Amino acid sequence: MVALGMLMALVGFWSLWLRRSGALFTSPFFHRVAVCMAPAGFIALLCGWVTTEVGRQPWTVYGLLRTSESVSPIVLSSMAVTMTAFVVVYVIVFGSLIMMDFAYWLPIVWAVILVAAITIYVILDGFDLGIGMLFALERDQGRRDVMVNTIAPVWDGNETWMVLGGAVLYGVFPGAYATLLPALYLPIVLMLLALIFRGVSFEFRVMTRGTAREALWEVGFMAGSGIAAFSQGVILGGVIQGIAVTNGEFTGGALDWLTPFSVLCGLAVMCGYALLGATWLVW
């Protein structure tokens, strides 16, 4: 974290020197370095938090440090001040560079809403799907009931954010919607079917309690959760690796999304959702 911070500061001083010499916008090497340094702040932040939080765990596990002493002393007021400062600085920096044109800002506002809806869905419904996948690792029926009871009040409401994201994409960005849907039609349909079957299994598991069909619905709950998570990862991988477009229309094949990279993304999302589910249960 410290090394990346110093490196970012050096790049900043380097840019000032290039600006004074008039070569800031004509130095290809600096531009490449700047692009490579784009995620440096995020990586430094993660490294700092991992070092701080994970470094305390052995001391807590072995009873040398109390759990209350392991928690970072962060209060709501300090977080609110920091967030407010970030918002003000970014509004001043970027708002001063762009004319306040309503036609310009409207797509940006809706893009922010779309990203927020997708992010909230991944966080909230992610732990739901993760708990469904973790069912396969828990054999005790009582503990399975506890796992289900923790998400029973919220699991269906969490999926509302996905509906919001799809509605925004359809209503505000119809061109992107018309391009992405045919390119990723199969994994999207598979995801929706898995979510439907998962919801049905969630309800019928309770209604068939004590019968031979209860195990069947539990398998359906686990399979629906896993398939939905995998499909979302495949969709993400398909978008990242690119879609064949000609004159604003999709011109690829029905299975262009099926690549080793998209499969890896699907497995990664499954692992991430399982981690979210585990942290939800611990919390």
UniProtKB/TrEMBL annotation:
Its main location: membrane. It is found in: Cell membrane. InterPro entries: Cyt-d_oxidase_su2 (IPR003317), Cyt-d_ubiquinol_oxidase_su_1 (IPR002585). It holds the Pfam family Cyt_bd_oxida_II. The chain crosses the membrane at residues 32-52, 73-98, 104-137, 183-200, 221-245, 257-282. One of its GO terms (molecular function) is metal ion binding. GO terms for biological process: aerobic electron transport chain. It comes from the Eukaryota. One of its GO terms (cellular component) is plasma membrane. Keywords: Cell membrane, Electron transport, Heme, Iron, Membrane, Metal-binding, Transmembrane, Transmembrane helix, Transport. It is a multi-pass membrane protein. This is Cytochrome d ubiquinol oxidase subunit II. It comes from Anopheles maculatus.
